């Protein structure tokens, strides 16, 4: 943590303006674009800091600072919990709903901008970096190409050009703030994480949902030594590179990762059952085909019978949830469900994260 | 008023999370969904508190607290006055424009959510209750069924599931904050309310406007002993149950309630003339029919001749107003008009209300 | 600067409400609708105050006060810099996105409001004046008539009816906050402004952009004695009245103003090159014709060859900019570009302006 409120800046191009005191320049800024940003040790520190954040009524570590949130997609939890986190730390939170309020943005370099985009991300990011102390970005690309979307061009263009830290508020590949809140919630209940059995179960859903929460949780859970089972139908494989990284994590941490293609074997012995729908990367370019495939997958739904197969598992879901499609009311509202604790922990994790980045 | 900033919470399901201090639990939370929420004595206390609020520059009773406002319909006065009220009390106000920013919401229980709604009100309300200290909701349903719309499903689902107080920012049936501001404005001018003659006059308008402001004012005015005349054309009857309750109020308070179907007899002797258009509950399912009926009702407009029939009445309207349709410029801008005082009193009433609920 | 926080109010119709302390009444309020609002001496004071604002971490001159911003058009810099400016001065900033959140507005007096507008600007402005301490308005009219649009009816209706200061956040004719930030940026680099050569160069652009930034800068630069060259193709003349006023300014200040219709002679000898596209007032009613005319104007683009003709000019642009259409990446990112300093100075200028108006 840096002593001066401006040392988080690292604009090597920053010009010293004659006659004006200007911002200090630090060597690096820290973006949080993926859950892989943090080492296991840093994650443990963040979790500990999160627990202290719950105790604190409010601090003033963000006094005089502004966090701007840019939403290119809808949000309830992320938007409200980030704004409350910033305000509880004494800061100012500025929300920008990109679709309605801002100019169309160009993320690619060296383009002749004679199309519909009115502003380059370079200019938006550098301008905002002159006004605010951190940027949150939610951008879920949905072209028909998985290879294009997984590059997360808009998010990475912001990170490249912003001179203040950029925090991923959910992208095509990742949702790191959600995953850290999830792991904090698991730790509150299981105390120790090493070797504990977490099942990440795909569920039915009318829409092709983003893969971010699952990827980020997979990363964090394997890094902290959990024994993870990934259960999904064929055709709904997670991103290859992400799964590969999770295998490496598990090898390093003494955790495990296995993949099964039926829900039942995923349930057996689970101590934590994390349900979430996600879209098929295989059918990313063909949502109609995906919808057709899903007609035979309605049984991928968590009900009391599914819960009964687990080892009295905690039930988790990152919300919003389609009730009685993803999981039944009796599970969502049942005694083992911690879905609202997950949501509340977003607030505390983000206070810890902002303190870590800017405090 | 409660001493601890968290005692307003009453989540009986609230789980004690191992190792974390959690929020205190109070026995009840207080929602403000209708003007009928308050007894006559409570109303008088609120009015008195409002007057004190005008004196105060700012307090800090909301320090460290957040009020979230959810708008499912457009707003100027409510949105700005609530945000200013919260900030003037030292709190943080968070605005959510539901139509553009949030997920589609399901208000009904036990539904299989395979339609367009992405999130259940239960989950949105419980999540928000973990982040904020009070929720304001503006939701004006407009299906074609009066029986359905008068149930105010979205508002009541929020009230049912939120564990923090829910404040009605205007619904199909009610607009309690407006009505209390109106009564404060009347009291500032007439000093005593008992037996004073208030006429609530329907007026012409191109659209079928909501009935909330009239219902809530009818309730409050009869409860405080005013002698109310309701003037509207046949077919524009207010909600039966609301009118019945107002009759009971009037009987209890020594006030009066009569209904006339011509504007002129409504004007005679009025000390306060409150103009407002509202949609026909009779033709709720058939707006084209309502528009046709209204072709012969253009004379239901307040002009100087109408004002001259009153007992030098104060002129009131809750705004926004269609000038020269509902009332003429000369009346709206005339010496007896208090339309901007009504608007300003929204601010002070809401400071009183937030202090009452959370202070 | 006024000692009491309420003396900026001048509502001559303001009624004293029995039993309530009400706001003080000052003789005048000060709107900032055009750059012509300020005398040369006042401009110099504002520039000096801006420099002091950069030094300050934050003040509390807006403690307890609210600035509301009304956007009828998209914004990034203006919206974020104004919100940050207000918050850095201890105030509360309220953003209203008129298109999605507010009622349709009628700016004309004495209209029978039976059309689509639900509220008169008179009522919106007077209501807001009861809640907030200053209003910012961005409204870029785009009917097909230049004579109509240059009247800026919505902005002027707000100024007429608001009893608090109204600040132009960009209109058809003006963008005063941008121009003052521009002049501060020039002064930071050239130190002295008198007689220095500023070229304001029209550039290519796919859309007919507003003329506000150019008009306001033309005004401010001639008032402070700069030697201004205006370079644009035939058919892209600026507003006649604005140019006439700039000629008068130049005569008074010892500055200069010449107009050329080729880019090259505009570049020769320039010490500051300010590039900006703007729409043709001549073809205001016929955008298709304008687009046709512009097909032969693609060479009006600033590249390194153009920069080489200048006297090592500073390169300026108010952003957003169409990269490689208006100017090349190499110029925008080059060593003489101060585009982000211009953007940053918006923040400091607006802190100075708010302090000037409300402090």
Features:
Rossmann fold; alpha/beta; homotrimer; 5-stranded parallel beta sheet; 14 helices; 359 residues
Summarize the entry for a quick read.
Chain A has 359 residues and is of the alpha/beta class.
Draw up the topology in text.
3 copies of one chain form a homotrimer.
Chain A: H1 40-55, E1 66-71, H2 77-88, E2 92-97, H3 98-101, E3 105-106, E4 119-120, H4 121-131, E5 134-139, H5 146-149, H6 153-161, E6 166-171, H7 176-190, E7 197-202, H8 212-223, E8 227-231, H9 240-253, E9 256-260, H10 263-267, E10 272-276, H11 287-294, H12 304-309, E11 314-316, H13 329-332, H14 339-358
Helix pairs in contact in A: 1-14, 2-14, 4-6, 7-8, 7-14, 8-9
Structure, described:
Three copies of one chain form a homotrimer. By secondary structure, chain A is α/β, with parallel strands linked by helices. Chain A has two domains: 35-175 and 345-358, Aspartate/ornithine carbamoyltransferase (Rossmann fold, 3-Layer(aba) Sandwich), CATH 3.40.50.1370; 177-343, Aspartate/ornithine carbamoyltransferase (Rossmann fold, 3-Layer(aba) Sandwich). In chain A, 39% of the residues lie in helices and 14% in strands. The first copy, chain A, is built from 14 helices and eleven strands. Chain A has helices at residues 40-55, 77-88, 98-101, 121-131, 146-149, 153-161, 176-190, 212-223, 240-253, 263-267, 287-294, 304-309, 329-332, 339-358; strands at 66-71, 92-97, 105-106, 119-120, 134-139, 166-171, 197-202, 227-231, 256-260, 272-276, 314-316. In chain A, the strands form three sheets. A five-stranded parallel beta sheet of chain A has the order 9-8-7-10-11. In chain A, α8 (212-223) links the parallel β7 (197-202) and β8 (227-231). The radius of gyration of chain A is 21 Å and the shape is globular. Chain A starts with 39 loop residues before the first helix and ends with a helix. Mean pLDDT of chain A is 89; it is low at 1-27. Chain A binds chain C through residues 15, 17-21, 64, 66, 68, 92, 94, 96, 100-103, 106, 109-115, 118-120, 122-124, 126-128, 130-132, and chain C through 51, 54-55, 57-58, 71, 74-77, 79-81, 83-84, 87-88, 97, 99-100, 188-189, 191, 206-207, 319-325, 329, 332, 338-341, 343-344, 347.
């Amino acid at each position: 943590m840096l002593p001066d409120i401006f040392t988080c800046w690292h604009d090597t191009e920053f010009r010293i303006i004659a006659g004006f005191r200007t911002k200090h320049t630090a060597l690096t800024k820290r973006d949080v674009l993926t859950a892989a940003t943090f080492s296991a040790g840093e994650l443990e520190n963040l979790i500990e800091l999160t627990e202290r954040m719950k105790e604190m009524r409010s601090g003033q570590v963000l006094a005089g600072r502004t966090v701007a949130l840019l939403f290119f997609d809808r949000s309830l939890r992320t938007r409200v919990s980030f704004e409350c986190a910033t305000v509880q730390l004494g800061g100012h939170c500025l929300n920008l709903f990109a679709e309605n309020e801002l100019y169309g943005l160009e993320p690619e370099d060296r383009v002749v901008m004679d199309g519909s985009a009115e502003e380059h991300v370079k200019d938006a990011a550098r301008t905002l970096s002159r006004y605010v102390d951190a940027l949150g970005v939610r951008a879920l690309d949905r072209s028909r190409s998985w290879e294009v979307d997984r590059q997360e061009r808009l998010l990475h263009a912001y990170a490249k050009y912003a001179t203040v830290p950029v925090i991923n508020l959910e992208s095509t590949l990742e949702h790191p703030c959600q995953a850290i809140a999830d792991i904090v919630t698991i730790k509150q209940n299981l105390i120790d994480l090493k070797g504990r059995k977490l099942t990440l179960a795909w569920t039915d859903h009318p829409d092709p949902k983003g893969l971010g929460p699952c990827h980020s949780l997979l990363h964090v859970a394997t890094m902290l030594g959990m024994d993870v089972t990934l259960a999904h139908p064929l055709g709904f494989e997670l991103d290859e590179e992400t799964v590969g990284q999770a295998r490496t994590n598990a090898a390093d941490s003494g955790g495990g990762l296995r993949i099964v293609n039926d829900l039942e074997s995923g349930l057996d012995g689970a101590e934590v059952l994390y349900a979430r729908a996600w879209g098929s990367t295989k059918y990313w370019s063909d949502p109609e085909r995906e919808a057709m495939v899903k007609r035979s997958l309605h049984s991928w739904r968590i009900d009391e019978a599914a819960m009964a197969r687990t080892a009295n598992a905690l039930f988790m879901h990152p919300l919003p949830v389609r009730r009685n499609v993803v999981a039944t009311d009796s599970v969502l509202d049942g005694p083992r469900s911690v879905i609202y604790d997950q949501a509340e922990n977003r607030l505390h994790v983000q206070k810890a994260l902002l303190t870590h980045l800017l405090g």
